[in-house]
UniProtKB/TrEMBL annotation, chains A, B, C, D, E, F:
GO terms for molecular function: peroxiredoxin activity. Pfam families: CMD. Residues 36-117 form the Carboxymuconolactone decarboxylase-like domain. It comes from Halalkalibacter wakoensis JCM 9140. The lineage of its organism: Bacteria, Bacillati, Bacillota, Bacilli, Bacillales. It comes from the Bacteria. This is 4-carboxymuconolactone decarboxylase. InterPro entries: 4CMD/NDH-1_regulator (IPR052512), AhpD-like (IPR029032), CMD-like (IPR003779).
Amino acid sequence: MTQKDERYKKGMEVLGKLTDETNLNLLKRFNDINSDFEDMMISFGYGEIWTRDQLDLKQRALITLSSLITQGAFDALRFHVRAALHAGLEPKEIVEVVIHCAAYAGFPKSVTAFPIVMEIFEEEGIKLEGNNE
Amino acid sequence: MTQKDERYKKGMEVLGKLTDETNLNLLKRFNDINSDFEDMMISFGYGEIWTRDQLDLKQRALITLSSLITQGAFDALRFHVRAALHAGLEPKEIVEVVIHCAAYAGFPKSVTAFPIVMEIFEEEGIKLEGNNE
Amino acid sequence: MTQKDERYKKGMEVLGKLTDETNLNLLKRFNDINSDFEDMMISFGYGEIWTRDQLDLKQRALITLSSLITQGAFDALRFHVRAALHAGLEPKEIVEVVIHCAAYAGFPKSVTAFPIVMEIFEEEGIKLEGNNE
Amino acid sequence: MTQKDERYKKGMEVLGKLTDETNLNLLKRFNDINSDFEDMMISFGYGEIWTRDQLDLKQRALITLSSLITQGAFDALRFHVRAALHAGLEPKEIVEVVIHCAAYAGFPKSVTAFPIVMEIFEEEGIKLEGNNE
Amino acid sequence: MTQKDERYKKGMEVLGKLTDETNLNLLKRFNDINSDFEDMMISFGYGEIWTRDQLDLKQRALITLSSLITQGAFDALRFHVRAALHAGLEPKEIVEVVIHCAAYAGFPKSVTAFPIVMEIFEEEGIKLEGNNE
Amino acid sequence: MTQKDERYKKGMEVLGKLTDETNLNLLKRFNDINSDFEDMMISFGYGEIWTRDQLDLKQRALITLSSLITQGAFDALRFHVRAALHAGLEPKEIVEVVIHCAAYAGFPKSVTAFPIVMEIFEEEGIKLEGNNE
């Protein structure tokens, strides 16, 4: 197997731990849009970055969510809330990233992120106990 | 004790786990600049956010570093690399946040962050094994 | 009354000057999402920041609108255009913030903000004279 | 003719090379919103900047698309993908700006931009060969 | 007088109310760098935006400071803290913009802005009473 | 040769067209900091992105400069002004990117970028004719 396929294969493997059917469909759509870009996403983004073992998937999910909220990338946030759940973060931990970002990126970013997070939770059938965790 | 002092006290407690003498001096400087602002930072930022128990200090450090790199807040990054070390993150884990952010915030942000992280490591007498961890 | 309730109470008081029924419903929704976060917004954002007397509500509205347009926080902008009207800013003054930001944050941010501002004006039954004020 | 009309006239001329009916309607809408702002956009943005001869329209389109993707100004991106096509950029070149920005602004910005670019292409009846160019 | 000179002249007039010798030297430097850009700054930025009468100079200073802190444009902030003082804002009001932005743009932006504001105050021989105003 | 070395080799080749001794030293420094990150920069950033043939080096330089100015990545801007010169952009064309960005990213970003660009020009012994080109 060439090394390109190897990075791509590793990327698909880690994505298998992060995605479910909804997300897999989103990724397939990118293959139709531009297979070069789709390859970069899978091979570099997932195959090279997410597979690195200095941090585990849950830690990488925290970093990713924080970056997305901070830069206001709310469309990508939808994908990664699901990925975070699959990585093993608890819903209350995902909520906590949004709250923590209020201090570091300002309340508007968190105020915009919150309903999106809750929307994904609802689609996934997740109910938060009380409403703090 | 009033609740204000209580939040401030909790903030100072968690800061005690995150700061050393260098950082404590930085904070004292803010008390001279504007004690209201200094109070908000300690009471809200640390007393209300960092003490929440849904995530531990190491996880909060990952989120904070990611937000700072993503928004290009490199001055604040200096403070928080030290805080992250004190929170218990290993140097190689801090380096990993910078690398992960290259995919999510772009290479320029990470390229600017890296020398800053290494500079703080050097000041703290930290040597990375090989240079990957 | 504990100090927590006191900050929250002050926050609700100033919000009473900034909100009407539409906005109040938006806030109630946050209490269902996460009451901790809702408390931080009301107690810190409004109870501690907006009540400070060094600047009045109209001045704070100018600062808030500018920050939101500059960072592209257009969802939060909807809330704050209404809040600005209630704070006492005239419609032509709100429009002026959008125009001023074109020079400081670039035309794309202002071009995106303008239709949103006009939409809120229309919902509030506001007609601008001529179309410059 | 006064110089104001001259800058405006030059702006409308270059816009004639960048717009079609869809975009022209968008601009007309701004004249109803605020004619001062509309004048600034046309006279300064197009009349002073886009007409400068140190770079041609295709080069300016590359710069504009890159800035919009980087700052996440996706509404304005719609207008400028069309303008870029009219300026003479090939669809594959526009796609290339999105891919290039993944390295410089991070994958989330490009991942959000891509479907928007494809949407405009579809509305314009553009089919990309294979799907890389 | 041509209209170009007229906008430029109006720009220089309002700058006369906003600048002192330090700032004037900064502007002269831009004329040597690129006179076209210098003309755009003076004629559009100051001649068209700052002279508009829907908001006064102090209000425009609030908007400008907020936008600069929010986007992290700390070099430009130095110029505009001085301009704000000349526009008539009191030091305590300028400090207040920094504090207000902590909630809307996050604490890191304000934490970086504060020492810069204090530095300009010191250069201008300004002493804040107590340290809250 | 493995494919990893192949992407790295292609990256070094294109860098050879973009760098001179100053820049090459900057890159070597990254190999000492973290060879994994250095590999990603060279293999992905340059080996995969800059070598793509849908756009040439001068066009990619325009896109890169625009993204860096827009996001305020001024440290990386230094590297890329030099790279742009080596890619074949004329000094007046690089200046033009800064001017164009004033409309799209706001004047503060361009005002900060300009002296940096001029500084690199001076270090490279470049004199602009008149001062508009």
